[in-house]
Write a structure and sequence with these properties.
- By secondary structure, this protein is an alpha/beta fold.
- The chain folds into two domains: 324 residues, 4-Layer Sandwich (Glutamine Phosphoribosylpyrophosphate, subunit 1, domain 1), CATH 3.60.20.10; 344 residues, Rossmann fold (3-Layer(aba) Sandwich), CATH 3.40.50.
- Helix content is 33%, strand content 23%.
- The chain has 20 helices and 32 strands.
- The strands form six sheets. Strands 7, 8, 9, 10, 12, 13, 14, 17, 18 and 19 form a ten-stranded mixed sheet that branches. An eight-stranded antiparallel sheet has the order 4-3-6-1-15-11-16-20, with helices on one face. The protein has a five-stranded parallel sheet with strand order 24-23-25-26-27, with helices on both faces.
- α10 links the parallel β23 and β24.
- α4 crosses α5.
- It starts with a strand and ends in an 18-residue tail after the last helix.
- Bound molecules: uridine-diphosphate-N-acetylglucosamine and fructose -6-phosphate (F6R).
- The site of fructose -6-phosphate has 15 residues, from α10 and α17.
- Involved in amino sugar synthesis (formation of chitin, supplies the amino sugars of asparagine-linked oligosaccharides of glycoproteins).
């Protein structure tokens, strides 16, 4: 997810080098959000010039680039008494991670206006065509460029316009979401910042005691152009004077002054989250959607995009923010893994967002559309991955086969390579990876490319090697996953693969009712995951009271739940270091039953599907040998509720469609592995011997 950082100093001497270091440090604090490129914009040597430096890759690469600049190119010692600068880490959405697409983005070759942006401008295509029709030339593939160009276009019509009025005129034209910072050589040392649906906050640093700890919001009776942009362009775009109507409420700006009423030194920090600001100041003000911050001559004003609504808060409080950095990034959670487990209602929703039309039962995977006819004609589908990603392939293999009638094989990347498995031109090879950088999966991808197969990626990290080198694919959009144990990526991969199956078979009339059933099921998944997360306390107790003393654990599943059993076992061993094994319930009697006694904990998946009677028979066999299983079943499942005294625990999850049940059943396992590790005092986010991204064979 992109990160925003801005820095303004007013009558505080700072060398250019110091300013750059503040920006780079700010960006480094935002690195945890995940990104693929970064950049900064600072004042050039001439007052009318802005210098932009940006690079693909880590902030370290940007730092190296800056360090390589010569003194005559970038004089680090030059002192600025007042200065405005902006910086950004980008997680590519519109436009691949190329230097030209990195932010800050300038409005024109002279960078009259420079912007950084988080979010998506949904009407950018219409804006782009309109601006192109007015002679503007776009050089990036981003939606953000239309914002920079809008600033310039409207300014050029009316150069006397105030910076915040100009910002309003631009915002009236934008649809979508944004966290936005803008600077301009026409308004030296000023910054405008605004947000809608993307977080943005501001830190204030001054040696003086603040006389007020709030900022009044300024309202103006402005009217948004009612013209629908693109069809009938608004007044501003056509050179309206941009002057907004009458001010209806006056207000005090936030200004630091000394006893004689003279302005005093102040620094402002703007950021998408507090982690990059709290090092400098704990005085933080959180902005609301549609606030427009204007920093000008040490003064901070907050304007509103629209006129005042009844009951609207007219002040923004400057708070003393006491949280420490580590605490902050994890929110109220103790570990990233726990945070990511609890993010799943949101991350699964994000995987489907904009791709499923639940009213018309339609799935659109933009990244696959053009390739669909070719993939449909494939002789086989090979799904290739490692670890948890491999399990998401196993979990969805049968629904892909059922809906497409194309044979699917699921391969562990390393084994696939060891076997030098044959691959043909009419095979479609699907590579599933959270990081998109796993060496074994990458090698397998190259192997398939060399053999002329169609390659499809299902990847979380935009701009990663697998995402770039596959012919086409789907980004799972789960957001950055930091905990070494993969949790939210699993459920999002699972959903992306189900959507893949639905898309591939969308032309089948005979499967329409099955499609509808699955889509109705998918729609409910986020809220059903929330319901399963309520089991946390019960699971924590189960881990503390029973499981943490054990040495080994078995997980029994069959059909769709075999993959859940394997994934649960992997989660438990990697995080809690307890030996655990996923067993196909049908295989119990072929050997594993020898292990069963009254002590060995056994987790069995007995959610309701066509294999339920067979699973129950396996559970009976365990109980007959004095085993006390932990049963994961659907709510109010009569057959199982009566078995209370014979089980160690019964964990109830909501019922969903058979092929989606694994999405809900895996959540208690993620929680068990988490709480087992915590009760054993293990550093959950950094388990021994493991790395988040395995880039070696
Ligand atoms: C894309 C945009 C998204 C925008 C949406 C609507 C990107 C990254 N996503 O999403 O911001 O809201 O259009 O217009 O720009 N790809 C691979 N291999 C992979 C994964 C993806 O080649 O492993 C390719 C796809 O084929 C596609 C591109 O990357 O060309 C983007 O994929 P994806 O983000 O899944 O596409 P959309 O959901 O359409
Ligand atoms: C387990 C885990 C690993 C990864 C595996 C593949 O929790 O995280 O098993 O799933 O290393 O990684 P990606 O998905 O990045 O290719």
């Amino acid at each position: 997810m992109c990160g925003i950082f801005g820095y303004v100093n007013y009558i505080v001497d700072k060398s250019r080098g110091e300013i750059i270091d503040i920006l780079l440090d700010g960006l480094q604090k935002l690195e945890y959000r995940g990104y693929d490129s970064s950049g900064i914009a600072i004042k050039g040597d001439n007052p009318n010039e802005t210098t932009i430096i940006k690079r693909v890759g880590k902030v370290r690469v940007l730092k190296e680039e800056i360090a390589s600049r010569t003194h005559s190119d970038l004089d680090r010692s030059k002192i600025f008494n007042s200065h405005a600068a902006i910086a950004h880490t980008r997680w590519a959405t519109h436009g691949s991670p190329l230097t030209v697409n990195c932010h800050p983005i300038g409005s024109d070759p002279k960078n009259d206006f420079v912007v950084i942006h988080n979010g998506i401008i949904t009407n950018y295509k219409a804006l782009k065509s309109l601006l192109e029709s007015k002679g503007m030339v776009f050089v990036t593939e981003t939606d953000t460029e239309c914002i920079a160009k809008l600033f310039k276009h409207i300014y050029d019509q009316n150069p006397n316009i105030d910076f915040n009025q100009l910002t309003k005129q631009v915002l009236y034209e934008l649809e979508g979401s944004y966290g936005l910072l803008v600077m301009s050589s026409h308004y030296p040392n000023e910054v405008c910042a605004t947000r809608k649906g993307s977080p943005l906050l501001l830190g204030v640093k001054t040696d003086r005691k603040l006389t007020v700890d709030f900022v009044d919001v300024e309202y103006e009776d402005t009217k948004k152009s009612e013209n629908n942009f693109g069809l009938s362009p608004s007044a501003a775009l056509n050179g309206g004077n941009g002057h907004a109507g009458l001010r209806t409420t006056g207000s005090r700006a936030f200004l630091t002054e000394d006893q004689d009423g003279q302005p005093s030194p102040v620094e402002y920090f703007l950021a998408s989250d507090p982690s990059s600001v709290i090092k400098h100041t704990k005085k933080i003000l959180f902005l609301e959607d549609d606030d427009i911050v204007h920093i000008h001559d040490g003064e901070l004003k907050i304007h509103r995009l629209n006129s005042k609504q009844i009951g609207e808060e007219t002040k923004r409080q400057i708070q003393d923010f006491e949280m420490e950095l580590n605490e902050l990034m994890k929110g109220t959670y103790n570990h990233f893994m726990q945070k990511e487990i609890f993010e799943q209602p949101e991350s699964t929703f994000n995987t489907m967002r904009g791709r499923i039309d639940f009213d018309n039962y339609k799935v659109t995977l933009g990244g696959l559309e053009q390739w669909m006819p070719l993939i449909r004609r494939s002789r086989r589908i090979l799904m290739i991955a490692c670890g948890t990603s491999y399990h998401s392939c196993l979990a969805t293999r049968s629904i892909i086969e059922e809906l497409t009638e194309i044979p699917v094989s699921v391969e562990l990347a390393s084994d696939f390579l060891d076997r030098k498995s044959p691959v043909f031109r009419d095979d479609s090879c699907v590579f599933v990876s959270q990081s998109g950088e796993t060496a074994d999966s990458m090698l397998a991808l190259r192997y398939c490319i060399e053999r002329g197969a169609i390659t499809v990626g299902v990847v979380n990290s935009v701009g990663s090697s697998i995402s770039r080198q596959t012919n086409c694919g789907v980004h799972i959009n789960a957001g950055p996953e930091i905990g070494v144990a993969s949790t939210k990526a699993y459920t999002s991969q699972y959903i992306a693969l189900v959507m893949f199956a639905l898309s591939l078979s969308s032309d089948s009339i005979g499967r329409r009712s099955r499609h509808e059933e699955i889509l109705k099921g998918l729609q409910k998944i986020p809220e059903q995951i929330s319901a399963v997360l309520q089991l946390e306390e019960k699971i924590k107790k189960l881990c503390n009271d029973h499981l943490n003393k054990q040495k080994s654990l078995l997980l029994l599943g069959r059909g769709y739940q075999y993959a859940t059993a394997l994934e649960g076992a992997l989660k438990i061993k990697e995080i809690s270091y307890m030996h655990s094994e996923g067993v196909l319930a049908g295989e119990l009697k072929h050997g594993v039953l020898a292990l069963v006694d009254k002590d060995l904990p056994i987790i069995a998946f007995a959610t309701k599907d066509s294999l339920f009677p067979k699973t129950m028979s396996a559970i009976e066999q365990v109980i007959a040998r004095d085993g006390r299983p932990i049963i994961i079943c659907n709510e109010n499942e009569g057959t199982i509720s009566g078995m209370d005294s014979k089980t160690m625990a019964i964990l109830e999850v909501p019922l969903t469609v058979d092929c989606l049940q694994g999405l809900l059943n895996v959540i208690p396992l993620q929680l068990i592995s988490y709480w087992l590790a915590v009760s054993r005092g293990i550093d959950v986010d950094f388990p021994r011997n493991l790395a988040k991204s395995v880039t070696v064979e």
